[in-house]
Amino acid sequence: MPRGIAEFNKRVTNPAARAITPWLPSLGTLEHVGRKSGKRYRTPLLVFKTDGGYAILIGYGPQTDWLKNVLAGGPAVLRKRGRAVALTNPRVVSKAEAAGLVVPRSRPLYRAFPYNEAALLLTDAGPRRTGRRTGGAAGN
């Protein structure tokens, strides 16, 4: 997709999309940290469950900021359908390779999206812990 559309989406579409991602099955919000700024970002994306994590379609190519941030090793948390899941082990693969890993019920929708660039695979590291700790041994 052209960079101009990406910039428009970043400033106009994404803020609106973040409000509806909790209710749409193929959307999620990826929380990531800027590799240069250290700022926290929330980016709505097309997200599909795999056996061990998630596949995220890359629509704007490898120069996309959210992708660079995740590949730089910063923390990544997916917010999807009321859950927050920490993600690890990012790797970029072809859209076709990731299609075989997407759970069968989601494959037709995954293949229907015209983003043919690639997909980012991430491993589900488990539920994100939130809230304050109240005592207990270190390392809990």
Automatic annotation (TrEMBL):
It comes from the Bacteria. It holds the Pfam family F420H2_quin_red. InterPro entries: F420H2_quin_Rdtase, Split_barrel_FMN-bd. Signal peptide: none annotated. This is Deazaflavin-dependent nitroreductase family protein. Transmembrane segments: none annotated. One of its GO terms (molecular function) is oxidoreductase activity.
